[in-house]
Amino acid sequence: MIRFENVGLRYGTGPEVLRDISFTLPPGSFHFMTGASGAGKSSLLKLMYLALRPSRGLVTLFGKDMARVKRTDLPALRRQIGVVFQDFALLDHLSALDNVALPLRMGGARESDVVEHCTEILRWVGLGNHLNSLPSTLSGGQQQRVAIARAVINRPRLLLADEPTGNVDDGIGMRLLYLFEELHKLGTTVVIASHNEALIRRFEHPRLMLENGRLHVLPAHASRWA
Amino acid sequence: MALPPLTRRNSDLPLAKDPTSRFLMGLTALMVYLAALALAGALLVSDMTSRWDSGLAGGLTVQIMPLPDSAQADPLEERTEAALTVLRSTPGIATASVLSSGDVGRLLEPWLGKEAADPLLPMPRLIDVMTNGPVDTAALSSRLTSAAPGATLDDHAVWLADLRRFAGAMHLAALGIVALIGGAGVMAVIFAVRSGLAIHRHVVELLHLMGATDRYVARQFESHVIGLTLRGGLTGLLLAAGTLGGIGHAAAGLHASLLPDLATSPWWAVAALAAVPLAACLLAALTARWTVLRTLESMP
After folding, report:
1. Is residue A126 assigned to a domain?
2. CB-side exposure of A37: number of CA atoms within 13 Å?
3. Residue B206: which residues within 8 A CB-CB, separation 6 or more?
4. Is the pTM value of this prediction over 0.80?
5. Which residue of A has its CA nearest to B200?
6. C-alpha A13, offset from chain centre
7. Among the four residues A97, B25, B86, B156, which has the most C-beta atoms within 10 Å?
């Protein structure tokens, strides 16, 4: 699914923020990504969702070498990746339904299907009464669920979440993580960046641990006690 | 209770609230107004030229003036008959007919008014000549002058050529004005689209990361620009129609019939004017698409 080989990343002429990153995520796997603030979690996720290109090294996604993929083929690859952004990145002028519909409309889905599927998924995340609500009228937890619904509406092969529990209390955080667990059971490869150790330790999943720009892959049993 | 799902599709980019939107619509209205006037001017000149051309091509006019000292010259009627004899014996001339006093009065009416028909006015005699072959106008003029003193030959071809040159220059000027307006319009659209891209950069980047193609983003700008330029263009066209109607009304008041009547313009002229906002709209849409695609090329 994802393979990084000796990947390095620097912004402009600055120092490398990620160094010699090598790992492989098999299809259908579930990983947490941890690390202190500034360790490079967001940068690594950006490399995974193709927002950045590595300064060096090899990134393989869905079996394709990203250095060789043509720019015109990138949108189709990106549509196979669902991303839950740290700040949700909802479009303020669009309703919850229209926000969730974005990936479907980009993929050219029929409008009747768009409305049907988005209504269904918003009900699934408990927002069936807020289809027409603007993000500004929703609470932080509700916005987060809209962001998650948008990330998974397209049934992505890879789901990436950047601190999805960062703005909610532990109760809602647990519910969100169980939501990701359900998606994982449906076959989606999941990577969740979080610094909420208490929540992470409740799940038996391997961990990608970033420390000073370097990555350590911890298996599930070790991850629990990391 | 849950509200019914949205059926009306909002644009992914909130472009309608941009400050450049009103600017672009107003500017399009002004540009279409000016372009429509320039085009109408060119069409009027073209119509006028073709009317004069079809009426005067292949023709000559002989004018026989009343002479001040009529005692020493043949009467006007005799000189007219002499001129007709010369004309009818000249190779290349098909017909030569004398215009009645009424016809001459109507020709002079734009300058002299209704008094042109007054029989007390010393009116010249005019002979309308149609040719069916080449005529040596210099020799004919000389023969006419000797046969009928006071006769002058007016070769239409000379000033028709001047008229055609003038019309050609007017056409070029009008096309130049329309091209300049189009160029300014393209620059305005580029400015508006770049502003929109800068204002909504975070949204564009988000759509890009979610898998939107460049064409998908460009379509959002195209739809926005088409809506604005169509509304602005129709406003400009209505204003131009009002102005042209006013000019037509003023020209009708001259009783001169020198200018063509705008109300009786051929269908294709009306269609050409109506197409100005559509052309502006198409140009704006293409410019918006090109600008967005060029700008997004820099994204990874």
Report:
1. yes
2. 1
3. A89, A91
4. no
5. A91
6. 28
7. A97
Beta bridge partners of A9: A18
Compute CA A76 distance to the chain's CA centroid, rounded to the nearest angstrom.
17
Distance, CA of A67 to CA of A57 (rounded, Å)? 9
Say how far apart CA A209 and CA A215 lie, in whole Å: 6
Can you list the positions of beta strands (E) in chain B? 59-64, 93-98, 125-131, 151-155
Q: Specify the length of chain B in residues.
A: 300
3-state SS, residue A207: strand
| Segment-wise mean pLDDT, segments of 10 residues, chain A, 226 residues | 92 90 93 88 92 93 91 92 91 94 92 93 90 92 90 92 79 81 89 86 89 84 54
ipTM of predicted assembly, 2 dp: 0.87
Minimal Cβ distance to A95: which of B6, B203, B206: B6
How far out from the chain centre does Cα A3 lie? Answer: 16
Per the structure, the complete domain to which residue A131 belongs is given by 90-155
Q: What are phi and psi of B229, to 5 degrees?
A: -70, -30
Of A83, A91, A129, the CB nearest to B2: A129
Q: How many helices (H) and strands (E) does chain A have?
A: 8, 10
User: What's the distance, CA A31 to chain centroid?
Assistant: 11
- Domain count across chain A: 1
CA atoms within 13 A on the CB side of A192: 29
**Distance of residue B192 Cα from the nearest chain A Cα, in angstroms:** 20
Give the Cβ contact number of residue A24 at 10 Å.
Answer: 12
For the residues of B176-220, what is the DSSP string, one character each?
HHHHHHHHHHHHHHHHHHHHHHHHTHHHHHHHHHTT--HHHHHHH
Enumerate the H helices of chain A as residue ranges: 41-48, 74-78, 96-106, 111-124, 140-152, 170-185, 197-200, 220-223
Number of Cβ pairs < 8 A linking chain A and chain B: 73
Residue in the block written with tokens 């096309």: B175
Beta carbons of A49 and B209 less than 8 Å apart: yes
Using DSSP, state whether B143 is helix, strand or coil.
Answer: helix
